[in-house]
Amino acid sequence: DLQICQHRAPTCCTKKMEESYQAAVRRERTQSIQALNFELKYMIVGHITAFQEAFESLLRFAENRTSSLFETAYRPMAKEAAEPVKELFTDISLYILGAETTVESAVLRFFDSLFPLVYSRLINPGITDLSEDYTECLRLTRQDINPFGHYSKNLVAELSKSLWASRMLSQALSLGIEVINTTEHAALSRECSRALVKMQYCPHCQGLTLIRPCVGYCLNVMRGCLASVSELDAQWREFISTLEYLANEMAASHELEAALSGIWSSINEAILHAQLNGPQLSATVDKVCGQPKQQEGNLSSANIVPVKEVTGTQTFVMAHTSLNNKRREFISYMKRSRTFYASIAERLCDGDLVMRDSSTCWNGEDVV
């Protein structure tokens, strides 16, 4: 009553053994594909972690640099500016990781929060009563009177260009893991599991426990079984090319490291621009928001000396080098995996599964 291992000679197999063999080949095939995938998945997961650590290192450096700007050059507002600075860098981090947000909304929200502080601490340092309503009016007025000139828009443009590739690379790596996980659990068809039993276990039914399949026979069976997986070849090659493109974009003229390290400078220029135009801004704000309470003998606008550089360059150079090295190493490895899905049958038929160094092997019907 055998369904798969039918043979002219007497057999030591039963139908129940054939069913056990089918369960065994399904389990073995999943384990074989998992073993093949392991190195590739390990590399991608490792680099997702490494990239994120490098991103976080650069973000922390850029955030500390920006905080130092306020503490050294704009001390009257440093304490109150700490929260908007923290929010800005949190939003940038979330954007890189794929959150539903935009660089523009993050940057403009920061400048909305910054304007009431610049206005009340630097342009009109005599203001004593900064009510919630007045603060909100200043926030809304920022969008209309544009106190920071072109600097806020320039920062949006610069960060958008550099962060886009990082965000896409982060999402692409996650997609790569998803694809690999899906192929590991691709179900074997009934025809495939029967063909695998015939190839691997039917010789056992004849007492031929040491004989192994012929190479060509193994390749035919595996290619048939993995046709749906090997169809990923074209898309996988395209995926690798896209990773290469994104990595090159990150390393191009609008690179992430330079954009992040320049945030403090853009904010500094924006604040200086607002101070230079203080009288015009005050006149406009008074019309829109009214005049707040001021101390007697209104203090003159503080003369701020622009900060040329904030310390910590060595940390930045290390993070910059680390990210560049990881990028190169990762793309080099991924390029070597370009034929991963095209060659999956060959790799499964490699090693101990088939008979390579002998003239005797199993062809599905007999020993040849």
Automatic annotation (TrEMBL):
Gene Ontology BP annotations: cell migration; positive regulation of canonical Wnt signaling pathway; regulation of protein localization to membrane
InterPro entries: Glypican, Glypican_CS
Stored Pfam families: Glypican (PF01153)
GO CC annotations, alphabetized: cell surface; extracellular region; plasma membrane; side of membrane
Primary location: membrane
Bilayer topology annotation: Lipid-anchor; GPI-anchor
PROSITE patterns named among the record's database cross-references: GLYPICAN
Keywords: Cell membrane, Glycoprotein, GPI-anchor, Heparan sulfate, Lipoprotein, Membrane, Proteoglycan, Signal
Subcellular location: Cell membrane
Function text: Cell surface proteoglycan.
Family: Belongs to the glypican family.
Protein name: GPC5 protein
Protein source organism: Irena cyanogastra
